[in-house]
Specification:
single chain, mainly alpha, 2 helices
């Protein structure tokens, strides 16, 4: 079993490559999801601000 992990003396490099590849793939999946959520939140806030602004403009003046 230890020979499998040692990979003939190249285990460190092999497992490092697997780890980095996995991290990059994970980032490629997670970053767009996070950006999409942030964009939706920002657009919702912008829409609320615009509606409040329009309500103030359309409100009857006393």
């Amino acid at each position: 079993m230890t020979e499998f992990f040692a990979m003939g003396g190249h285990g460190f490099y092999v497992w490092l490559a697997y780890g980095l590849s996995s991290a990059i793939i994970l980032l490629n999946i997670l970053l767009p999801v996070i950006r999409r959520r942030r964009l939706i939140k920002e657009q919702a806030q912008r829409l609320r601000r615009e509606r409040k602004s329009q309500e103030r403009e359309n409100a009857p003046s006393a």
